[in-house]
Amino acid sequence: MTKFKAILFDNDGILMDTEKLYFFACRDTLAEEGFEYTEEMYAHYTLYNNRGAWHYLVEEQGYSEEKARVVQLRWRDTYLRLFLTDTQLFPETIDVLKTLQGKFRLGLVTGSSQKEIDVKFEQTGIKDFFEICNARETYERSKPFPDPYLHTAEMMRVKPEECLVIEDSPRGAIAAKAAGMTCYIIPNGMTEHLKFPEVDCTLKNLSELVGILEA
After folding, report:
1. Full-prediction pTM beyond 0.90?
2. φ and ψ at 134, to 5 degrees?
3. CA dihedral over 143, 191, 9, 174, signed as positive or negative
4. 148 in Cβ contact with 139 (< 8 Å)
């Protein structure tokens, strides 16, 4: 019998095929500034180092913080338009959640704002699968700090060692392991070439999770 009581999912890139929307917003906004922003750059700044387009402009292009903030606001507007029209689940997401519901307590731990995740839930209909949804406003420090996962475990009244985390990025995996939790990763096209911390299992897709838990 599995030792896990709770499964905590990252959202973008795990349940929803929305990680690309963040990249598209960054790419298109920075193109307006005259800069090329590739998938590799996005993976390095955002998915590995948790430092987005704002940091790229300040650190690499010499923008003032104020000027970069103006660009960041345009990026947010672009991203908002994209996720309002193109938020999609991965094909296996619903089946996997239906299989796990009732067998494990399910939580969602995301770096998105509550407003963003509410819209994504409205568009995909998966909110009721989760006992807890921890959005960015509910914890002090975001991934790669362990705060999001520790706060979720505390809210669910489970021990860290009773939690299994499903992540797709190095920063998320670092956060999960720092929280003392088991972490399985599902690298995607943007993260598969990045250096991950030592994790407990690497999956090809979400469907593999069910087979491992039922074994």
Report:
1. no
2. -100, 105
3. negative
4. yes
